[in-house]
């Protein structure tokens, strides 16, 4: 066995409390190197039984280099002392806090330790998130329901989007189309910023306590939230707490008064007076955008202000959570206070961070419930859309991502295939709906919570900003009815079968050089095989699976299924897919 590949470290994603009675223990080994791993464990204060209890571990994920093993333990007294026994064909090793040994340790005192399951430390996500299907709305471009509050320079609905123009989308427009969202199967909405700001995107806030008059009023938002809740739809708002807009009154005061302003330390000012030299502001900003000065969230007064904002919209308006813009550039201490405040008002509020990279430091239970899962986005696009990753490469990356975070974080992660910051899925697919559908099938049958970017379901196209921010198409003659039916059926399937939401995940087929890939989801006695062909030719996929019935049933997609001794053989068309009930 390759000793250098063996890894475990208590806490974070390697040992953690999944709930108030269960501890998950994970171990990493070289891929296909270890035949069996046994966890030896016991209560740390009962020396006579430490090591006498043992249970086999199972591989729950694989990537290109490693196997990831898992076992769930429910210790009687919520504490654990444990070590690992690893076996290959001709070798046995033991692994504890002092390293790897060729003989069984003489003292269990050096075993790893999970000290105690303290309930306050258990990473708990809102239960509703695992069942959610999100729909992202860019408010200015969804629907114009109240022309009386249009901006003065409003343009005709459906025109060419630019970084600066307006079309009059508002909250009333969303209210007017709640029937549409409900019929689509949506049960959660994520709104881009709604607070007062001069731009169409509203990421340059002027007033954090006021809905932009272009969209309506605070009372109108409360009406919208109440109407959504009556239909079982949750509402999540965008919190822009990394930076404000240049017209936010505290920043205006600093611009005018410099160091003498009482708000001077609310921002990260490197040099007074505030100015821009060769495109670089003398104060920290989002990127180098002089209109978006970075907030000093370490300052007590800034903290108090922003935490009041977070509290107000949940308590008074009833929103169900926050999406946190540029979340990785805000200090961890602030986010810990933010979580305490938000969960204190509503323990079931969803806290979602915008982070585009590995996010483990934010996902250990003291800050966010989830992040926008852009690594998953890129993996799916590479496999299903760009055709730059084969089935095994996608499987390996998916396994790596599943091992990167605690299980509850994976269950709540926000899986998207496009947003206001990216080119639209149909455009990335070069207009090929087969590739778009293939990617979406993965999104809706994988661990995590799927989100549809408004209009994707009716065939909106568009390149990067501003092209991806087109007006929603409400003319039924111009909507893609085939795509809309596809989304409705897929959403219905996911919402009606828990196995496709948070069931177990197992790779059933992945072969180097092959565009085919298959995996199995299981929960509540139901098992589904998801079989995919990202290639331009027909493919036959052997799925090794035990069957619950004599004849598997294709419940979504196409293809042909025949039974054999190993399970079933699935034949797919180019860029085809099948969801099969086993």
From TrEMBL:
Keyword Hydrolase in annotation: yes
Gene3D superfamilies, sorted: Glycosidases (3.20.20.80), Golgi alpha-mannosidase II (2.60.40.1180), Immunoglobulins (2.60.40.10), Oligo-1,6-glucosidase, Domain 2 (3.90.400.10)
GO process annotations (BP): carbohydrate metabolic process
Annotated InterPro entries: GH (IPR017853), GH13_cat_dom (IPR006047), Glyco_hydro_13_lg-like_dom (IPR004185), Glyco_hydro_b (IPR013780), Ig-like_fold (IPR013783), Malt_amylase-like_C (IPR032091), O16G_dom_2 (IPR045857)
CDD domains hit by this protein: AmyAc_CMD (cd11338), E_set_CDase_PDE_N (cd02857)
Glycosyl hydrolase family 13 catalytic domain segment(s): 136-494
Signal peptide coordinates: none
Record GO terms (molecular function): hydrolase activity, hydrolyzing O-glycosyl compounds
Keywords assigned by UniProt, alphabetized: Glycosidase, Hydrolase
Pfam family, one: Alpha-amylase
Annotated family: Belongs to the glycosyl hydrolase 13 family.
UniProt name for this protein: Glycoside hydrolase family 13 protein
Species assigned in the record: Candidatus Cohnella colombiensis
């Amino acid at each position: 066995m390759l000793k250098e590949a063996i890894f475990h470290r208590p806490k974070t994603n390697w040992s953690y409390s999944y709930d108030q009675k269960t501890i998950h223990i994970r171990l990493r080994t070289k891929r296909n190197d270890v035949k069996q791993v046994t966890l030896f464990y016991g209560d740390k204060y009962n020396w006579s039984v430490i090591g006498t209890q043992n249970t086999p571990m199972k591989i729950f994920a694989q990537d290109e280099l490693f196997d990831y093993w898992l076992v769930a333990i429910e210790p009687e007294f919520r504490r654990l002392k444990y070590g690992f026994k690893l076996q290959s064909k001709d070798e046995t090793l033991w692994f504890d806090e002092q390293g790897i040994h060729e003989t069984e340790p003489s003292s269990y005192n050096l075993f790893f330790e999970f000290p105690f399951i303290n309930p306050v430390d258990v990473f708990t996500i809102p239960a509703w998130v695992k069942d959610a299907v999100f729909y992202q709305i860019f408010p200015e471009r969804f629907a114009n329901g109240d022309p009386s509050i249009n901006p003065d320079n409003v343009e005709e609905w459906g025109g060419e989007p630019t970084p600066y123009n307006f079309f009059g989308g508002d909250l009333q427009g969303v209210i007017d189309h709640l029937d549409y969202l409900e019929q689509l199967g949506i049960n959660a909405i994520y709104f881009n910023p709604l607070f007062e700001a001069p731009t169409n995107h509203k990421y340059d806030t002027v007033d954090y306590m006021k809905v932009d008059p272009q969209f309506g009023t605070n009372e109108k938002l409360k009406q919208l939230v109440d109407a959504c809740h009556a239909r079982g739809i949750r509402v999540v708002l965008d919190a822009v707490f990394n930076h404000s807009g240049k017209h936010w009154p505290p920043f205006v005061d600093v611009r005018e008064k410099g160091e003498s302003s009482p708000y001077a330390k609310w921002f990260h000012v490197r040099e007074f007076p505030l100015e821009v030299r060769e495109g670089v502001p003398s104060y920290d900003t989002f990127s180098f955008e002089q209109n978006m000065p970075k907030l000093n969230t370490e300052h007590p007064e800034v903290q108090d202000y922003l935490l009041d904002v977070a509290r107000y919209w949940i308590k008074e308006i009833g929103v169900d959570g926050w999406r946190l813009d540029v979340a990785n550039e805000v200090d961890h201490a602030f986010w810990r206070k933010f979580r305490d405040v938000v969960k204190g008002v509503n323990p079931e509020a969803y806290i979602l961070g915008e982070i585009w990279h590995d996010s483990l430091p934010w996902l250990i239970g003291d800050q966010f419930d989830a992040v926008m899962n852009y690594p998953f986005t890129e993996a799916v696009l590479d496999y299903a859309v760009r055709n730059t990753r084969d089935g095994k490469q996608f499987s390996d990356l998916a396994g790596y991502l599943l091992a990167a975070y605690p299980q509850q974080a994976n269950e709540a992660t926000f899986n998207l295939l496009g947003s206001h910051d990216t080119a639209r899925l149909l455009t990335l697919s070069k207009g090929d709906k087969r590739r778009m559908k293939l990617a979406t099938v993965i999104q809706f049958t994988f661990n995590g919570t799927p989100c549809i970017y408004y209009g994707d379901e009716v065939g909106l196209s568009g390149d990067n900003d501003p092209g991806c921010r087109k007006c929603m198409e409400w003319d039924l003659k111009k909507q893609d009815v085939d795509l809309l039916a596809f989304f409705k059926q897929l959403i219905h399937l996911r919402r009606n079968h828990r196995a496709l939401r948070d069931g177990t995940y197992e790779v059933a087929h992945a072969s180097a050089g092959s565009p085919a890939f298959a995996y199995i989801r299981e929960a509540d006695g139901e098992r589904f095989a998801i079989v995919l062909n990202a290639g331009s030719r027909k493919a036959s996929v052997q799925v090794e699976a035990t069957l619950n019935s004599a004849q598997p049933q294709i419940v979504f997609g196409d293809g042909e299924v025949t039974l054999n001794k190993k399970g079933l053989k699935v034949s797919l068309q180019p860029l085809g897919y099948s969801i099969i009930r086993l």
